[in-house]
Amino acid sequence: MKKALAVVCLLTLISNPILADENSSSTPVEKSKPSPHSQTLSVEPANLPIRRVVLYKNGVGYFEHLGHVHGSQDVHIDFTSAQLNDALKSLTVLDLSGGRITGVDYNSEAPLARRLSTLRLALGERPTVMEFLGALRGARVEVRNGANPAVAGRILSVERKTRMGTAGSVEMEQISLITDAGEVRNIDLNTSTSVRIADHDLSTEIGKYLGLIASARDQDVRRMTISTTGNGERNLYVSYISEVPIWKTTYRIVLPSKEGKKPLLQGWAVIDNTVGEDWSDVELSLVAGAPHSFIQQLSEPYYGRRPVVDLPESVQLSPQTHAATLLGGNNRLSGQVTDPSGATVAGATVVLKNENGGILAQTSTDSIGQYSFDGIAAGNYRTEIERPGFKKNETVGVNVGPGDNFVNSQLQLGAAAETVTVTAATTSTYTSSSEISGYGKLIVANRPRSSASTGSGAGVGPGAGSVGGASLNGRNVQSFALISPGIVENSIAQLGAAANGAGLGDLFEYKLKDRVNLKKNQSALVPIAQTEIEAEKVSLWSGTAGAGRPLRAIWVKNSSPLTLDGGSFSVLDNEVFAGEGLTEPLKPGERRLLSYATDLGILVEAVQSSRPQHVTLAKIFKGVLTQVSEEEQRTLYTVRSQEESSRALVVEHPARLGWKLKKGAQQPEEQAPGTYRFRVNVAAKAVAALPVEEVRPVSVTYQISDLGPDQIQLFLKNGTLTPEMAAALQQITAQKAVVEKLEQEMEDRQKDIDRIVDDQGRLRENMKALRGSAEEKALLLRYTKQLDDQETQLAGLRKKIQDTETQRDAANEKLEQMINDLQLESSF
Predict the structure, then answer these.
(1) How far is CA 735 from CA 729, 731, 740, 741, 787, in A?
(2) Among the four 115, 406, 525, 539, which has the fewest Cβ within 10 Å?
(3) What pLDDT sits at residue 134?
(4) Helix (H) or strand (E) holding 625
(5) Is residue 337 helix, strand or coil?
(6) Could you give the CA distance from residue 135 to residue 157 in angstroms, rounded to a whole number?
(7) Cα(609)–Cα(379) distance, integer angstroms
(8) Cα–Cα distance list, 307 to 117, 310, 316, 317, 803 (Å)
(9) Following DSSP, what letter does each residue of 114-132 receive, concatenated?
(10) Which residues neighbour 111 within 8 Å (Cβ) at sequence distance 6 or greater?
(11) 337 — alpha (psi -120 to 50), left (phi > 0) or beta?
């Protein structure tokens, strides 16, 4: 009965002409103009269609609408919630014919309970009939029960009554009215009862309530209404950005089957239309770039909690000043390198790495041991510092924040092969080329069935016709056998690119030549590039292939004016699929290795061996003897070919920090970051070898003042010093012995003085014990004379010490002069 009664009441409300008019003017997205001559027109997409779309690699698209409006017309554009947020941040609306934009509104996404609370009706989201009518207490209504005359009055109450009948008790809903004559009338609510709202303002409020309830059924559809005013027909322009899927790029590389031809590269883009309306005759551009964009929930109402503050007796506001910026956004990491004595270390190599050990930058300390890295991003890093004669210093956990950051390091004496690791304590105080981009997967067979695709070619793509009387779409083996060699390759070469490349500020744009038709929620594959490139088929060994097998690769040079962004690629060799892979961005003129398959025709083995260190350089400078030795390492790559034709193998050998290729050894054809690339030509069914010889300098330092004769003789015997260096060091050692002898003499005489002073103390103690007898007086005279003689000896000893100290200082000054003047260097 409740459901039937609810239907009756709802039909009654809808049939009310007053209420229907009010509802049509009070929905959240459709508003009547106050002018009696105005009209409300929901413009369909065909009246304000999308005319231009620009898709970016960061998941946003730029959309332009252009159409006509007449008079004071409204325009509707539907979005999802995510799209509406982006549109609100970037919306541009222009009346190009002199009219005005009077407003832009959209349906709210506030919680339904909060929106209902703004109404004067105390109704929830799912009211019963009794709750609905009970909320209308005091309202003027007309109640009609079957064929009985209508009863008009104001609602007093709506109650549930229990009555006794022949079949027992029955519950009935009853409405009580107070008529204009003051009479209370009780009317049963049943399937034949209808209630008409006679209060105009209340009808409007009920219409708002029903509109809010209806809008909750599709919460993710957000309709934006653009209100305009003006005279006659006018042009309206609307633009905005919206969240869209990232467009993807994929390439096809067709290797020529005949000599003299260049390989062909085709670029395709995968696009998706998810904006909620069809793209019809749209000008489409694909931009290989990612301008900054972010998500902000502008379309959602935001409520904040406000504190309750008592009113003060008086409030005085003083002028304020605000401090200048202390830390900027150009981050800098600097520091100073010292040795254990605190002296600065110049010429030390400082390498900045990321947390994974990848090299980001490298520099050297200046004359006062300082280094710096500018313009680095905030984050965690590590530094490595090397200097001959010191252990390698590795600092981890270097946290770089905004502004200047300081990390000082101290090197420890020792061999460079040793490493000291510490944890940081950081202190903060369009060019003429074009670009393709994406990460899609290339379809190397038929062209897509897309109205955006252009170009022609015999036997390529759906509905391409027949060759030799056989349809290509039928995939008939016999008919494919009739295709002459090279026809597919020639047909692909005849295809033209469907896009023009051009600069777009700091980005790169592919603008399609033909306009695009794409239904909503559909995707398409469109060609954007067709160009010849330079490519050489090679095998590639990088030590990562399993079982000693290298990779099949193409050594590509981008000889086109296009900038090819990263994406997938697929290779056609002899008109069949040969493999696929990924490529990073490729600038015009840049060379790149692209691997796409495992090479089963070649085996590679790498064997490493080391040689003992030998001193190559000895240098004496400013009191320090430096001996530089070289650690040698040899890697022998042995290549065995099992092919009937010759091959070119590219060997990638790691370029390690501190190591360099030995002079006279084979040099690489090119060098990439952290990698040498060597070429090895391998004859058919033959074995080839590639030796890679590297050396690393290792420095050991000695203080000349600490060297003794035995150590100098050992250096001379081992061939790590020249005879001239040994003779000079021996002279210094001899002078050092003179200084040591004088110091020993001073020490011995000081010991004599100390002995005499001790004896004098003994004599004086004895003299204090004498009592004055004749014998004691004689003994006193003896002690007195002995003390006098000792004083004479002390004066002589002190004079000798002073003279010896003068000689020692002169000898020491001569020794220091000899050390500072000695500068020798010799290679071995």
Answers:
(1) 10, 6, 9, 10, 40
(2) 406
(3) 76
(4) strand 624-641
(5) strand
(6) 10
(7) 39
(8) 22, 10, 20, 20, 89
(9) HHHTTSSS---SS--HHHH
(10) none
(11) beta
pLDDT at 528: 80
Average pLDDT score, the chain: 75
Pairing of strands 222-229, 562-564: unpaired
Q: What global pTM score does this model have?
A: 0.49
* Cα angle 378, 382, 388; round to 5: 140
Give residue-wise pLDDT tens across range 358-414: 777 778 888 788 888 876 777 788 899 998 888 889 888 888 876 678 888 998 888
Please count the other Cβ atoms lying within 10 Å of the Cβ belonging to residue 141: 21
Mention every residue, 6+ apart, whose C-beta is less than 8 A from residue 313.
none
- Give DSSP secondary structure letters for 635-660: EEEEEEE-SSS-EEEEEEEE--TT-E
Spatial separation of the C-alpha atoms in residues 593 and 585, rounded to whole Å: 12
Give percent of the chain above pLDDT 90: 7
According to the per-residue pLDDT averaged within each range, which of 81-85, 167-171, 752-756 is highest? 752-756
Q: pLDDT confidence of 648, banded at 50, 70, 90? A: very high
Please answer whether residues 369 and 344 qualify as being in contact, where contact means their C-beta atoms are separated by less than 8 angstroms.
yes
Burial 221-251 (b: 16+ CB within 10 A, else e): ebbbbbbbbbeeebebebbbbbbbebbbbbb
CATH topology of domain 2-243: SH3 type barrels. (2.30.30)
CA–CA distance from 645 to each of 263, 641, 654, 746 (Å)?
21, 9, 29, 87
Beta bridge partners of 689: 638
Average pLDDT over residues 463-477: 36
In whole angstroms, give the CA distance from residue 617 to residue 37: 100
Q: Which amino acid is at 229?
A: T
Q: Is the pLDDT assigned to residue 153 strictly greater than 60?
A: yes
- CA 528 → CA 249, 270, 284, 515, distances in Å? 9, 10, 11, 13
Helix (H) or strand (E) holding 741: helix 723-768
- Phi and psi for 337 in degrees, rounded to 5? -110, 130
**Both tokens assigned to 11:** 């039909």
673 Cβ contact list (under 8 Å, min separation 6): 359
The superfamily (CATH) of domain 332-428 is Immunoglobulins (2.60.40.10)
Classify residue 389 by its DSSP letter.
T
Distance CA 496, CA 671 (A): 35
Tokens of 247: 């467009």
